[in-house]
Design brief:
Mean pLDDT: 85
Helix content: 40-55%
Strand order of the largest sheet: 1-2
Largest sheet: 2 strands, antiparallel
Number of helices: 3
Structural class: mainly alpha
Strand content: 5-15%
Distance between the termini: 57 Å
Low-confidence stretches: none
Length: about 80
């Protein structure tokens, strides 16, 4: 891992999202995940970029819930 606390390597990113390296690179290939900030080897991501990505994912989920609210289960 990098000495810079704001840079995360592939192993740290996989641990953060609880995914394998294969899944991470599959998501990169399909543009479902931010590109490494410092391409090459080792790949490194800025923690702030990942925080922003997380925030956008939460916002998308909340918008989906607003459009399709979950109806409570009612017993009669």
């Amino acid at each position: 891992m990098s000495n810079d606390p704001y840079l995360l390597d592939t192993q740290a990113v996989c641990k953060r999202y609880q995914i394998s390296r294969v899944t991470l690179f599959r998501r990169l290939t399909s543009n479902e995940f931010p590109r490494p900030t410092h391409p090459g080897r080792p790949h490194q991501w800025l923690e702030s970029v990942l925080d922003l990505f997380d925030q956008r994912c939460v916002e998308k989920s909340l918008k989906r819930l607003d459009r399709n609210p979950v109806k409570p289960f009612l017993r009669s």
